[in-house]
Specification:
By secondary structure, this protein is of the alpha+beta class. The protein has two domains: about 1-40, no CATH class; about 45-110, Roll (CPE0013-like fold). The protein has helices spanning about 30-40, 75-80; strands spanning about 1-5, 15, 25, 45, 45-50, 60-65, 70, 85, 95, 105-110. It has a five-stranded mixed β-sheet with strand order 8-5-6-10-9. Strand 2 (about 15) and strand 3 form a beta hairpin. It is elongated.
């Protein structure tokens, strides 16, 4: 039996799950789904920063578009730390495609790098 706290909704249910797919402690059906996913293939989103070449904005926030396998979190952060953004970008643009061959893109979370329009 594995104990865990569900992170899907604000309830924060204390769950217990086993390899036979028995789950207890969930107040909603999403808790069972979370517990089974956590047992078989735990995944997490990654939010971090990425360096740029712009002196006035040396780092910007980035995140994975989807969750990645939990065991790849450190490697993902390490890979992102090697990236240096050298062009103007808008929020939501891809900073790194298919990070670590996960099929998940890393995207920009700010508009601070967009080009300024001088009308």
């Amino acid at each position: 039996m594995k104990k865990m706290i569900c992170i899907i909704c604000p309830n924060g249910c204390e769950l217990e799950a086993d390899d036979e797919e028995h789950v207890t402690g969930n107040l909603c059906p999403r808790g069972r789904t979370f517990a089974l996913q956590e047992l078989k293939d735990p995944r997490r989103s990654v939010s971090t920063t990425c360096r740029t070449v712009f002196p006035d904005i040396p780092v910007v926030p980035v995140r994975t578009e989807q969750e990645i396998p939990k065991h790849l979190m450190k490697d993902t952060v390490r890979a992102i730390s090697e990236i240096v953004i050298d062009r103007h970008m808008r929020i939501g643009e891809t900073v790194a495609a298919d990070i670590l061959n996960t099929g998940v893109n890393v995207v920009l979370c700010t508009d601070r790098l967009k080009e300024v329009d001088h009308d």
